[in-house]
Amino acid sequence: MELEVAIGLIGALSGLIGAAVGGGVTLFANNQTNTDAEAQRVKDRAQYIADRQFDAHVNFLNAANEVHDDMRQLWDDIVGQHNSIAASHAKYLESWRVYFTRTAAPRLTGPAELDPSAAALREAIFAYAQKMDEWMRDLSKPASAQTATADWELQLNVLVESLTEAKNAYIKKGLVLLWA
After folding, report:
1. CA gap 114, 129 in Å, rounded
2. Residue burial 6-23, b: 16+ Cβ < 10 Å; e: rest
């Protein structure tokens, strides 16, 4: 009888140890799965934020390029005395509106290290736009009171150069920060 009890106890003890080991392994595996899932969620969230930052800066840069192109077209139409000045001016004003709506997202999404370059680009576009607006107001004066086109072009060439430098610096810094 003692032998049968001992054999039963050994079997029960083996089953208990097996259940404990199996439960421990299952608990460890579930814990590891939860840890891996949390790490993946954190990684996915970081990628989502990085994608949103990138998209905000690309949209800002695209809008900056569009308003710059429309200002250049308006300039060409003014110099060429084309009948399309009003249409070019309307297109420029619309692209300015779109550009202005896209200036906030890069400031909100970051990264903060890119803010000075973005600010320099915003300031360059603003200075260029102000000069274009001054030129448009000047055109409404009698021809004898208007500033010579060559004078406007000299002023605008400086602003275009400043805008181009600011845009290139923004792109260069953005590529380093957003593609790192």
Report:
1. 23
2. eeeeeeeeeeeeeeeeee
d(CA 124, CA 144): 30
**HSE-CB of 54 using CA atoms within 13 angstroms:** 12
pLDDT at 180: 65
Q: Are 121 and 162 in contact (CB under 8 A)?
A: no
At 71, the pLDDT band (50, 70, 90 cuts) reads very high
Q: What is the pLDDT of residues 76-134, one digit of tens each?
A: 888 887 778 889 999 999 999 999 999 999 988 888 899 999 999 999 999 999 998 88
Report the C-alpha gap between 65 and 67 in whole angstroms: 6
